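ok trying again, last paste got cut off:
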Amino acid sequence: MPGPEFEARPPGQDAFEFPDTECDGWATPLLTVRFASVRGAKHRYYRQPRQDAARAAVHEATGSIVFAVADGVSSATNAEFGAVEACGSALERMLQLLTQGQESPDFQDVAQLAAERLRQLAQWRLHKMELEPAEVAGLYATTLVAGVVRPDPAGPVVDLCRIGDSGAWLLDRSTGRYQELFDSKTGSDALLVSNEVSPLPHVPDPLPRTSTRLAPHEALLVGTDGFGDPLGDGDGQVGSLFARHLAEPPTPLWFAHLVDFTRETFDDDRTLLAIWPRTTAASP
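nice, full thing came through this time. structure:
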């Protein structure tokens, strides 16, 4: 069932840097990108800012696309800043590593740099140099999925890592089926749904990562749990909705409209990034 309809309330006056909704979309000769981040019903009602973020960029020398999706942890007092800064730091480092000749970025290095950025922000905010990890997390804790899609004659190669409970999927556009690329917390194989998150600034070692090839009939989806939880294993109405509308890349505004769906009991911020291979090389 859809959730209740109401006019969104404004966030606090200091949250003007975090609009209710943002979206973007563009294409390279080989890949098409869309992403959108929307404020959830709970934050819209209680006048809180959106705490999700997403960023994507093209590495012009290789044609690779780097991306990051983050979900600021609600218990952190400035989670929205943590999500944005983690995404930006991750993109900057991945672009640097690709420029230095790394075919696939060293994700441990990428994650450590994002964690260091959050520590630096906390130092500035708290006016102290020596900080406990819990102090940084209390301000800026965030999940992170970061990755790269690089062109290849045999089909685009996807490399990505994650910290926390945001997720990634391959959508088979010919069948409407979803394949999770990381362990599930909501699928049929999960006996219990856990809300426990181990986010940045903590960096696990080894860092969970995966690699796959993007087939012509597939799309890569990367999203926060605001998307992943209602999606579940993809067999329900949400899975059907997105399988139908993402069979081909929609316009950026329509993509944002889709991400802003309502479903009863799911009121979290919701962010989704999607990448499709283009079947013929052409100028965007």
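cool. The first helix runs from residue 41 to 45. The CA atoms of residues 42 and 267 lie 5 Å apart.
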